[in-house]
Amino acid sequence: MKILVLRSSRLPHFFNAADFLKHKYPAADIWALAQENICSELTEEPRFAEIIPFTAPRYSVSALDNEQINQIRQKHFSFVVITYANISGAGYDNVHDFAESLELPIYIYDKNGGFYKYSAGVKLLRAGKKLWHKGYWSKKIARKINEIKNIIADADRVTDAIIGPEQQKQIKTLREGFSNLAQIANDYIFEADEEERSPEGITVIPSASIIVVNFNGKDLLEECLPSIFRAIEFSGKRHEVIVVDNGSTDGSQEFIRQKFPKVKLISLPNNHGFPKACNKGVEHARHDILVFLNNDLTIEPDFLSQILLHFETYKIFAISAKAYVYGTNDLNQGMTLGVLEEGRIKIKTRDSRRIIPSLYAMGGSCAIDRGKFGKLGGFDEIFTPGYSEDLDLCVRAWRRGWSSVYDPNAIVNHKVSTTTYRLMTPREVNILGERNNFIFTWKNFLEKDVLDEHWRQLATRLDKTLTEKDDSLWLAFNQAAEFLPAIISRRKKEKLKNVFSVKDILTKIQEGT
Questions:
Q1: pLDDT in the model for residue 22
Q2: Which of 66, 256, 373, 384 has CA atoms 20 to 30 A from the CA of 43?
């Protein structure tokens, strides 16, 4: 992959953009397009694969002829990145005009480290015609417009008494300009309200509440928390970190208070399990995006910047990260597919180089829209102490038309069930997994034909275990059966929200991959 970087701001921003891209796309060749009078400063830079010099004082279509533009096109760049400090001025406009002439996808790298796609929304912002980029901000903007109008109205009452005719004329011109701008903003607001979705616009990385569940994992937090704060610093945003401690006795709480005073520590008196602890963390969160992380993983520095890019569209519910087995290049968790086999959903995991739909986002390394999370009632605590609560949550979201997506560029390194195996034997873990699989199936197979097939296949599976002298499946079945009254109650509620069936969901994901 080749990436072309254009300079429309000072060299430090140019270099920062190159460093960011080399980290984000380590296998890519980063090329630079620069004015000849700065090429001598760039040619020795290891950040760039090659420098393309041009004599034009600014990169504008008028300054570069078609032959020069075609030379760049023939190098087959994947996309072009523009660096900038301020989105105003002729230099900024000319660089964008030139970038558009290359007929490549355009991305912006701004002075604050933001990285987003250049779109119609950015053009409107440059033209002074757009005041917001996310649909749910619209009412706040509308209120602010009205406040400013009221201030202007109050000022009108005293203007004649304190300034002369010439100044009044200038102020009138300014007010007319503002009135036009306000009307355009209102038009966008009402259009978005009607469509119930965010328009195409600027992708701004939102702030997130990062929730980590811990139980006797002081040694794990010693690696986990520093990696989170490195990622926060890399993102340049004010994220918050919440650790929900499940009654640890190993000094975890004291460690957090001493070493990480910025962490919001929620101390539970005993171990409530993963789903309930996550829900408790959400109660104390203050941001609109929730990032759930296991304590037995570390995240890459650009993890937050990457995983939080996707929430500008209404239908996105959750983003799933790519997980490597800690210290290796072995895939632990990729995108997930579901296949109906033996009367249940069998999960298959594979990697992908592109962002694609995924059946569910792994609960210990994902980002979730808080509003939708709340509408679903959060993680279902029927799955306590854990397993299948993330699958259940995302299937319920898919049923309502809200998508889960896998982003292979958001990377974590996972030590794999470290906490679980400190609490349970492998046999107990296996029984718990089977129990929760039963609960998930009985709760979410709302279609009669699918559930009937489950019971037929289950009878065969249970009968087979008798000859194998393994009672694990029977124990799991009996434990799950104790929850049948609660499961039936949940089924009734889910039927009211049933837009897509289980088969529909699995098919949509297969088609999306």
A1: 84
A2: 66
